[in-house]
Amino acid sequence: xxxxxxxxxxxxxxxxxxxxxxxxxxxxxxxxxxxxxxxxxxxxxxxxxxxxxxxxxxxxxxxxxxxxxxxxxxxxxxxxxxxxxxxxxxxxxxxxxxxxxxxxxxxxxxxxxxxxxxxxxxxxxxxxxxxxxxxxxxxxxxxxxxxxxxxxxxxxxxxxxxxxxxxxxxxxxxxxxxxxxxxxxxxxxxxxxxxxxxxxxxxxxxxxxxxxxxxxxxxxxxxxxxxxxxxxxxxxxxxxxxxxxxxxxxxxxxxxxxxxxxxxxxxxxxxxxxxxxxxxxxxxxxxxxxxxxxxxxxxxxxxxxxxxxxxxxxxxxxxxxxxxxxxxxxxxxxxxxxxxxxxxxxxxxxxxxxxxxxxxxxxxxxxxxxxxxxxxxxxxxxxxxxxxxxxxxxxxxxxxxxxxxxxxxxxxxxxxxxxxxxxxxxxxxxxxxxxxxxxxxxxxxxxxxxxxxxxxxxxxxxxxxxxxxxxxxxxxxxxxxxxxxxxxxxxx
Length: 492
Known about the structure:
Layout: H1 5-22, H2 30-53, E1 62-69, E2 74-80, H3 84-105, H4 110-129, H5 133-142, H6 144-154, H7 159-188, H8 193-199, H9 203-220, H10 229-236, H11 239-264, H12 266-271, H13 273-292, H14 297-316, H15 321-352, H16 368-381, H17 388-403, H18 405-429, H19 447-465, H20 468-491
Antiparallel strand pairs: 1-2
Helix pairs in contact: 1-2, 1-4, 2-3, 2-4, 3-4, 3-11, 3-15, 4-5, 4-6, 4-11, 5-7, 6-7, 7-9, 7-10, 9-11, 10-14, 11-14, 11-15, 13-14, 13-18, 14-15, 14-17, 14-18, 15-16, 15-17, 15-19, 15-20, 16-18, 16-19, 17-18, 17-19
């Protein structure tokens, strides 16, 4: 294909943001909303076409675009495979949902908010398309800026504190990765990922370079004990900000482990597996227990995200087919489920201006449509069979059992805790006693909220019963990743 589809996919939202900037909306921001919706849906359908056009039988990067940059020192190189395409589609699917949600939840500076969302979409898609270390790093870090503004400008009462905490944690964690990229260029003479795969990193450098990349990915994931920025960021962020943060930004770190940590540093990945197992198990159990103690719905869901990301890192570093496929499936599934749960919190927050669990109770009696959808998302979050949340955890645990019985048993205990805090939340909010008289005056979900929540519920149930489209997409790429990893270990 001669058409630069990846560049178009990346820069279409950015170009649209300039049109919004130049629009002359005075009060209702209708032009800005229409431009952003048109742009986001066009990007989504373009990503679907890209997914449809991908050759799933080939593990190679496809639709590759390459342009020299900075006197051939760095290449602007893009490409996708069966792993990255799913994260691109997830990103382009979640973005229009965020734009629709902001119409109800964002009351000031909507025009600027839409620009921040579209610019962030450009950076997120760029992360999943990059085939050059420097380009990846630029996109990876550039996403901090619009997210920092989304939290700091449109967030809650402690928005400035939360925004700076988010920014400093993630930026400082990435400084070592930048140093590691410079070292890799010094060792190999290139920052082209595909060339570095062929050249191989000398084994005496792998451990230190792996730790440098790990410092960035662990914070962004986030892994215990560098997870403390996430609950604050979620609580203070507007609904759309929480949705993007949970659904997409956290997945960039998991993608980084798959794209860089394992293929570039296979010996180090094997060496540090016990460390990952330990941190992942602590994250799963500890943050699940913390979630049980929360009285804020957003904080509870935020801590549950840390626990679910613990399953992702555990699955990736089992370095087995089931474990890695389970971690990818878990990331896609969590992107849908967490987005839905944060939207549900946003729906009732817009009506009663409270996130406290004690504010609610007996919602099923007054807003049944909302309650039914909330129940679906809660059951998916605890991994009920028939929802997408089940298969990812099942595959991760299957892969973990092949490597460590102890780690698998402890991780299985986390599933029980996950069921406990989600059922506890559902019981109190949906089926509890109604002590707040304002509950009786609530209006059920409107048309825009139905569109958002039903679309997410449909995909969660569809991929729960029929996972084949996702599994077929990344199957060959995962097989290639594992084969190359095992070959590298044998040769060393």
